[in-house]
Amino acid sequence: MSNRPPLYSAADSCILRGMTLKKTLEPSSSSFSFESVDRNRIFLFIAHGSREEKSNQSFFDLLSQFRQVFPREKVEGCFLEIAKPSIPEAIEAAIRKGAREIFLIPLMLFRGRHAEQDIPAMIQEARAKHPDIDFHYASPLSEDPFFLETLNRKVQSFVKPQTGKRS
Q: Is residue 13 included in any domain, yes or no?
């Protein structure tokens, strides 16, 4: 029996484990910064992948923005299917670069076949091939409390402020 945590657990849904989290509140916004404690760690963000290069490029643009906000972290992107690099390719590249701990963060909204079966199967294969590497798999975005806040902000952007006057 392995002493590793389960592949998909509530504890793994928080990618902040092992980091110091600082929250700075400013008027109308909040930002987070991380102080990295382990340079042998990498975050692999997973997108679905598209035949439309513009869509894939949007994913890489998002990663570039993330790197600017968290410059001390190693961050790479990979795709579930269609586009490159694939999840197994990205895992192998991370290990070649010295990663000993790999956090896989799917940019999937809900638990579905990809999040529940396909990605975990790829991670299990990598675990079997590299038993000395620690793998962590985050839950889908909809399970994060910040997701509801994001949805609320999106909804509020469509709602007119209450002025007390009827139109």
A: no
* Model confidence, pTM: 0.72
Query: ∠ at Cα 105 (104, 111), nearest 5°?
Result: 115
| Alpha-helical regions (H) of the chain | 53-69, 87-96, 113, 119-129, 145-156
78 lies in some domain: yes
Per-residue pLDDT at 158: 87
In three-state secondary structure terms, 134 is strand
Q: What range defines the domain where residue 142 resides?
A: 48-147
Q: Who wins on pLDDT, 40 or 29?
A: 40
Residue 77, domain member (yes or no): yes
d(CA 127, CA 123): 6
Instruction: Report residue 106 as tokens.
Output: 């799917």
Which tokens go with 19?
């980091």
Side chain identity at 13, as an amino acid letter? S
Within a 10 A sphere around the Cβ of 92, how many other Cβ atoms? 15
Widest CA span of the chain, in angstroms? 66
Query: Which CATH number fits the domain that encloses residue 109?
Result: 3.40.50
